[in-house]
Amino acid sequence: MITPAELSHFGPQEFAPRVVAWESTRACNFACVHCRAKAQKEPDPKQLTTQEAFDLVDQIAEFCKPVFIISGGDPLQRPDIFEIASYASSLGLRVVMSPSGSNLTAETFEKMKGASVKMISLSLDGSNPQLHDTFRQVPGAFNLAMKNMKLARESLFPFRINTTVTQHNISDLFNIQKVAVDVGAAEWDVFMLVPTGRGKIQMEITPSQYEETLTFIYKANLTSPIPIKMTCSPQYTRVIAQQQKQHSQPNQGRRGGGRGCMAGNGFCFVSHIGEVFGCGFLPISGGNIRERNFKEIYQKSSLFVELRNHELLKGKCGKCEYKMMCGGCRARALSVNKDYLEEEPYCLYQP
Fold first, then answer.
1. Could you give the CA distance from residue 172 to residue 124 in angstroms, rounded to a whole number?
2. How many CB atoms lie under 10 A from the CB of residue 94?
3. Which distant-in-sequence residues (6+ apart) come within 8 Å of 115 by Cβ?
4. Secondary structure (3-state) at 129
5. N or C: which end of the chain has fewer CB within 10 A?
């Protein structure tokens, strides 16, 4: 663990999150096979109350003004969600929302606008009903997703499409990208599965497929009409650097959304019961906002201090020349190696 004195060489952005995701509830109508939260039909009676949610927003806003992702489960399962979103917006947070499994209506979008929600994300894990519905485990999920996207476009409400890459859809990514463009998404965010919750290691693509996917996304981004971002894939920063060096194109791929592991390093995740994690896939808490101030947890808890110190990385991640820009996925290291400081198990690169 590094000492407070040693923290001085880190930039200020590491001390305040640029993005905070709040798992507003675990209630959801879907039971997706990859679900981190193991979402359920009914809300957990221990989830944050309305007043506790306001307190969380206060603690964040007094500290910084990040993007505030209201996720779940399905946040629309909370009857107070627009009240909370409006309050967060009024305090200067940029509020976005991630509804899951909801049948959205024109009234829903008007309520989001009234609460100053800036964007929503909608999931699409297959370009056809067979692929998407199997993944979501709800017949008709694909048609519902397409309906919601059409309604968002008609409501002039920005939306992005999230896709989680697993063995079931790795051959369908080109088609999913085409759908994202055709339906008018503002961007396409490609998530690499982290085996937590219902997500199983057996669902993950192989390391070689992982590398091929990163290269595919990089090249697709060069000509894509909409930006393509990648999440839970810190090695993408290395791939971008390698591709730009190889092709002498320093300005190409800048829309690629490349970023290293943000767990505790510009990003954090607050659970439905107030636990603060480096990310939603890293199930080690730095503290609970019911007991400790959010800023103190983010800046001073041993978990977050260690996550920000890449000198503590082990194995080949610790030796890698790209470790400061990449850092490897700490959640995947924990899931496979039982140590969040161990090397990234799905990276083929040899330092």
1. 11
2. 16
3. 82, 83, 85, 86, 89, 95
4. helix
5. N
Q: Where are the alpha helices (H) located in the chain, listed in sequence order?
A: 50-63, 81-90, 106-114, 129-136, 141-154, 173-182, 207-223, 235-247, 294-300, 302-307, 315-319, 330-337
Neighbours of 154 (CB within 10 A): 11
CB 48 within 8 A of CB 274: yes
From residue 207, alpha-carbon distances to 167, 239, 270, 351 in Å are: 12, 14, 30, 16
Residue type, 195: P
Question: Tokens 């993950």 correspond to what residue?
Answer: 204
pTM for the complete prediction? 0.89
Mean pLDDT of the chain: 89
- Angle at the Cα of 70 (from 14 to 325), degrees rounded to 5? 30
The pLDDT value recorded for residue 299 is: 96
Provide the edge-to-edge strand list for the sheet that holds 187-192.
228-231, 187-192, 159-165, 119-123, 94-97, 67-71, 19-23, 267-270, 275-277, 285-288
pLDDT tens digits, 14-50: 489 999 999 999 998 765 554 544 556 678 999 999 9
Helix (H, G, I), strand (E, B) or coil at 347: coil
pLDDT tens by residue, 84-111: 999 999 999 999 999 986 779 999 999 9
Q: What is the mean pLDDT of residues 256-270?
A: 88
pLDDT at 3 over 50: no
Q: What is the 3-state secondary structure (H, E, C) of 217-273?
A: HHHHHHHCCCCEEEECCCHHHHHHHHHHHHHCCCCCCHHHCCCCCCECCCEEEECCC
Amino acid 198: pLDDT: 47
User: How do strand 67-71 and strand 19-23 relate by DSSP bridges?
Assistant: parallel
Distance between CA atoms of residues 17 and 63, nearest Å: 9
